[in-house]
Amino acid sequence: MAAALVLAMTASAAAQGQPVAAPSDLVASDHPWDNGTRVDLTWTLSGEDAALLGYVVRRKGANDPEFVRVELVPPGTRAFTVSELSPSGSYLFQVAAVRPDITESTPASTEASLTPAVQWFDGTRFWFLLTLIVTSGAVIWFIVLARRGATLKVRRIAGLEAVDDAVGRATEMGRPVLFIPGIQDMNEIQTIAGISILARVARTAAEYDATIEVPTSKSLVMTAARETVQQAYLSAGRPDAYNQDAIYYVTDEQFGYVAAVQGMMVRDRPAACFYMGSFFAESLLLAETGNGIGAIQIAGTAQPAQLPFFVAACDYTLIGEEFFAASAYLSGEPDQLGSLKGQDVGKLLVAAGILAGVLGSTAAALTGSTWIQSIVDYFTFTMLA
Amino acid sequence: MSRDARLWTTLMILGALALLVRAAWTDQGMGREYVRASPAADGRITRYEPATFGDYQRSVAADPDQATVRVSVPRSVGLWLAAFFTLAVFSFLYKDNPFYKIAEAVLVGVSAAYWMVVGFWDVLVPNLFAKIFPGVVQGWAMPGLTGPEAERNLWYLVPLGLGVMLLWRLAPRGAWIARWPLAFIIGTTAGLRLAAFLHGDFLAQIRNTILPLVVLGADGTFNPGASVANILIVGSVLCCLAYFFFSFEHKGVVGGAARVGIWVLMITFGAGFGYTVMGRIALLAIRLEFLLDDWLWLIDPAGRRMATLAQGLLVNI
Amino acid sequence: MKRTIPLLITALGGFALIVAYFIPHTQSWGEQVAVWFDVLASLAFVLGGANLLKIHLKHVSDRARGWGYSAIVIGSFLATLFVGLIKVGVSPAAQSPDYAWSGSYRQIGSAFWFGYEYGFQPLTATMFALLAFYIASAAFRAFRAKNLEAVLLLGTAFIILLGRTFAGVALTSWIDPANWEGFRYLTWLRIENLTVFVMSVFNTAGNRAIMIGIALGIVATSLRVLLGIDRSYLGKD
Amino acid sequence: MGAFLRDEWWIMLLAAASLAPLVRRFAGEGFFPALRTLDRRWIFLLMFWSVLLPIYYIGLTGQTFPEVPSALSQATFDEIERLQEGDPILLSFDYDPASEGELGPMATAFVKHAAAKGLRMYFMALWPVGAQMIDDTIARVIHTDYPELVYGQDYVNLGFKSGNEGVIKVIVTNLRELYTTDVRGTAIRDIPMMEGITNIQQMRLVINVSAGYAGTKEWVQYAVTPFPDRIRLVAGSTGVQAPLLYPYIPGQLAGLLGAIKGAAEYEKLVVDAYGGPNPDPRYLEGLRRMGPQLVAHLLIITLIVVANVLYLADRRREMRR
Question: How far is A304 from chain D (nearest CA, A)?
Fold first, then answer.
């Protein structure tokens, strides 16, 4: 009905051949608290606002030959924020009314060009800063609590309880332990988490007098793994047993690395295999080969796409967050365990946030209340943006 | 020689003989690569574009004395090598053997060097040398280096310095200095990932889970399908979060939720597994097509070796 | 000195980047550091390459078991490195024929390209193709209905696999309102709809929870590293 | 099949000979005992033959395996089927050669269907190489089987425009603001079939073949969502991104072809309706590629069933004890 009315009005206006009534009083101002990429525009509506398709917003940088379209906003809109500008550029802006048959009015223009200013704090990230402070604060708070001697209990994680058994079995059988810290470089947090777990596993291996082999796919990971394992052997009181040649670089190529590790597995037959880090398609290649040689296999990764294969082919799999908790859990140190409690607070906050949002949006859907909807929208699109 | 080894040796000799007969004594043959030779603009350097046996037959039909489309010996050797490597890798499925070991050794050597060459020409030259000595690099390997990109940027002495510290490990004394660049990498990685994951994945996933439990259609009627789906999504996310809880053993209410959580995770993994199968089989099909089509010339579904092209493929707009 | 300074570098580097995330003037630091990292990783190739050569040369000189394969590694490594670094068989780029080194190192027809096309590419692609075999053997072994969890895992995989064959679609195509009026409410049981339902509800929810957990895990891991609580990577004093 | 077995007896013999020891073991030891100690290399061998034999058979004979269209493919087909001769449709090809294997057959089938129905086709691309994919498909289908169709009257290639979703946002209301010429440089006003076309709300259907960003998701968000009554969309997508698109069905996405399976189902529908008694092999590419997929899937399904039968039998025996 409304659409038909609009069409009818448009038809009559167009039929009369009248020029489109233009918007006026276009004002551009710098968007406050941003990184110098936004400008706020306001204008007064066109006289035939109800019959319009909308307003087309255009901008022109100092080096642009002509105005470029930014957005078409619906009728009734009086303000718009132009984003993705350059803090070093200066811009002119135009807003024109458009009828459904795409005839345009003469545009309202800004007189002087405007350069968006860079402020010292990015206001769009205010709520994120708060989120960061709360989540990190929870972790730090529990670390401090633990340092002060509070006793913190953490549930058992089956895959990690099995680490000692796996290394012990390798010792009994006189076969090596294989540790793979993923195939990504040190600029991946999963690799760092994997190296931390390596420290614990290597220490157990040193205590049990098992040999540990760490083939790596990146040179930097080899360097970091050597430092780590050497330290582990030292703190286990067995610096003489450390063999740096057991930690070696193979190749950066994913499948070249797999070819070599797979070959090594069938030849040296490790009795325990650990896959801890960031994995891709090689996950199943490694885990199935390990399965073929009868090794105990424990995997941990935060690559959701590879978890199914580890779950299918390994004895134990640390899923996502459990993998990041592993090194703290294995260390058994109170302040490290404290950080796990902090993560739980984070999860509680997430659950509370989801519940609040879900209840709000359900209430809005049931009552049709626009103000509840606007609160929910503020929560989802501003606070969680 | 064991019975097994004798059997395999016999099979391999028979296979090789069959290949030889097919390659040399059949009408069509197999395993040849063709190129189309075309002189470059200055007439000196000849460029070779890939061509097919079909192109060759058509060229000969048009002009029996032609030399434009011809057999390329190096590329034919390469094709046979590629076929050998393919079979050698597959042979690992039976058991570890010398052919696989050769393929493995070649792959390790070639690929390690490959990524080093890529690192040199794509990272070190443009992102280190060209920043510190733009003039020299422009005159040597990057003639297109001009404009603001060509300005000297001494900030790049920082990674160079860190790199030198890293390589100090090769020196007999003071290898501990390599921990400084390592500490820099680990620290910056931790900072970057913390902010990026919290801002990206974390908030986005919470935002996407905020769904109304009751969905009404545009005309105000109740939509049972969408409502049930939303309830299941929200409930499943919360139960999975309960599974990840570290503070409590999986008992009582939390334990119940955690148990539902692990069910949801299992369904997720089952779906992920099932969904991937198709792509993995396609990978195998491509390799087998390479053997049957490109190398053995047993099948030709795309008609690349036919003397007459399917009508229409010649038309170009 | 050997341990305190690295700890300081870690903490300062990390916290500086977190703060920089909120200050417009410094928001590009992250990208800058990423470029530096690439440079460092490329320089580190020297360490990896030297170690690779060392290990395999040792094999050869000790005449250890399988030393011949080590010789192949060394040969293919050095040959590829040589032809790639000095651009053997690369002609200058068409737009700058006077610069002898201007051609791309990957140019078709060059020696490096030959190694890629006929060595690297078929070998990696075939290694990748091994997955088709392993996915079958893993399914045979792991998908057994030992408990409810396993039933769910195998049941979901089974439904999705079945839905990818014509047999699966044919199996449930009789659930059609044309056959019986009541089927109108049961069409979601058709295998293609069931697939969509599993993927859009459970798969979405499961992956969402995993990703939220991962983000929290990263926060805690990063903080442990930055605060120096977890310093296993730093080595001995 | 008979002729294949007669002429290619050697490959069947090879397959049979390689599997003979397995059969002998099952016969000798009994089904369950043999299965319990089954070496996984037999599974590898079964997988090898179940991919290789279909490739060989289909590659040689050109025959394909049966395919039953799913509801989604049927919906996609019906969307095009309900259009009238001369209706304008927009085809956006947003992919590159890397996904050609999955998406090429869909693109071919879409164009074949549209040409057979006599629809006016407006091609465009959000990916740089998409324009090349359009030309290839036009050469493969229109130039070969529909040479009577005239460029500029029956179909036009508007080519690639950069800007991803920005392009969609503009052309939903004003096509000519971005497209002033077609891919050949002819001014839009000189192209007969562009007369009266000002925006893509005038298209009776939008068909998107997509390999990622920018693609189907962006078409849903920036074309269908703002104009749900005016724009109808069907899409063909890679297997990887298909699950991400399901939430839009059927409200915002009227039909979806997922991966090579979707391509094969749709090909089947198109060929049955318009391919004649002896369809050209060009229109069966998806169906051909489904051959090895089908046999391998059936193998894995059988393996899972057999494994569970074995497991349940063993458990029952243990419980009896």
Answer: 14
Chain-centroid distance, C-alpha A226:
29
Residue C150 lies in a domain: yes
Interface touch D246/C161, C-beta < 8 Å: no
What's the pLDDT score for residue A16? 54
Neighbours of chain D (3+ CB pairs under 8 A): A, B, C
D225 at interface of A, judged by CB pairs closer than 8 A = no
CB atoms B210 and A188 under 8 Å: no
Comparing A314-323, B289-298, C22-31, C35-44, the range with the smallest average pLDDT is C22-31
Q: Is the Cβ of B185 closer than 8 Å to some Cβ of chain A? A: yes
pLDDT at C235 over 70: no
pLDDT tens by residue, C103-140:
889 888 899 999 999 999 999 999 999 999 999 999 99
pLDDT of residue A9: 44
Domain membership flag for residue C234: yes
pTM for this prediction: 0.90
- The angle at the Cα of B271, spanning B269 to B276, to the nearest 5 degrees, equals 95
* Least confident segment among A11-20, A311-320, C74-83: A11-20
Region of A343 please: left (phi>0), alpha (psi -120 to 50) or beta: alpha
* Banded model confidence at residue C46, pLDDT cuts 50, 70, 90: very high
Q: Name which of B160, B194, B199, B269 to mutate to probe chain C: the one with the most chain C Cβ atoms within 10 A of its Cβ.
A: B194
Structural domain for C160, as ranges: 143-237
Chain B residues within 8 A of A154 when measuring between CB atoms: 246-247
Q: Which residues partner with A39 through β-bridges?
A: A30, A82
Cβ of C141 and D300 within 8 Å?
no
Answer yes or no: do D72 and C192 touch at CB < 8 A.
yes
**From D43, which residue of chain C is nearest by alpha-carbon distance?**
C137
Burial environment of residue A322 by CB neighbours within 10 A (0 to 12, 13 to 18, 19 or more): buried
The residue in chain A having the minimum alpha-carbon distance to the alpha carbon of residue D176 is A102
Delineate the domains of chain A, giving CATH numbers in brackets. Answer: 2-121 (2.60.40.10), 124-138+337-383 (no CATH), 152-332 (3.40.50)
Question: Was domain D71-279 assigned CATH 3.40.50?
Answer: yes
**Residue B43: band (very low, low, confident or very high) from pLDDT cuts 50, 70, 90:** low
Residue A130 has pLDDT above 90, yes or no: yes
Domain count, chain C: 1
D65 touches chain C (CB under 8 A): yes
Average pLDDT over every residue of A323-337? 91
Kindly compute the dihedral angle of the four CA atoms of residues C119, C124, C125, C129, in this order, to the nearest 10 degrees: 140
Set of chain B residues whose Cβ sits within 8 Å of the Cβ of D151: 317
D182 touches chain C (CB under 8 A): no
What count of CB pairs under 8 Å joins C to D? 83
Query: How far, in Å, CA of D128 to CA of D148, rounded?
Result: 29
Query: A371 pLDDT exceeds 80?
Result: yes
Residue C77 lies in a domain: no
Q: Residue B312's pLDDT is what?
A: 36
**Every domain of chain D and the residues it spans:** 2-64+288-320, 71-279
Question: Which residue among D67, D243, D299 places its CB closest to the CB of C199?
Answer: D243
Residue spans of chain D under pLDDT 50: none
Tell me: the pLDDT tens digits for B9-33? Answer: 899 999 999 999 988 888 888 999 9
Distances (CA, A) of A219 to A113, A201, A248, B124, B166: 52, 21, 8, 16, 11
Residues 6+ apart with CB under 8 A from B302: B293
Asked whether residue C151 is assigned to any structural domain, the reply reads yes
The 8-class DSSP code of residue A118 comes to B
Residue B5 has a CB neighbour count (10 Å cut-off) of 9
Given a cut of 50, whether residue B113 has pLDDT beyond it is yes
Number of other CB atoms surrounding residue A209 within 10 Å: 10
A250 touches chain C (CB under 8 A): yes
Residues of D (245-304) whose Cβ lies below 8 Å from C: 246-247, 249, 261, 293-294, 296-301, 303-304
